[in-house]
Write a structure and sequence with these properties.
This protein is an alpha+beta fold. It has seven helices and three strands, in the order αββααβαααα. Bound molecules: zinc ion (ZN).
Length: 123
Amino acid sequence: MVRWLEDLSGEGADLLIQCRGCGHDRTIPIGQALDIFSRHRWSTDWWLAHRRFRCRKCGSKDIKLDADFYGHAIRRQRRPPVLTAVEETLRPGLRPPPPGVPLAEWNRATEAERKRLVDRARS
Ligand SMILES: [Zn+2]
């Protein structure tokens, strides 16, 4: 149960603002939301925070706040590759690639493409 806006950043979630009027929703990074609240000295009480937002599309103040775990995950993936670089491992259920075929290519290939990769490695 979320009690404070800060709870979201503890959970690794962003702030999802949903409009009850038109259904429009948007996610703002929780860090950005907390910045705005501290700058205005607004209470970060979860229910009081509902009053601070309005729909960007229709202007309605009838909004619902929620935690957005998905948006957070997406932004994490957008970090520079150097920070997220993990060593490529063989996808579970796949046999190892023939010599000369990069693991990354092998993992992403479809069944048909894998056959071609095998043929190519043999020739
Ligand atoms: Zn709206």
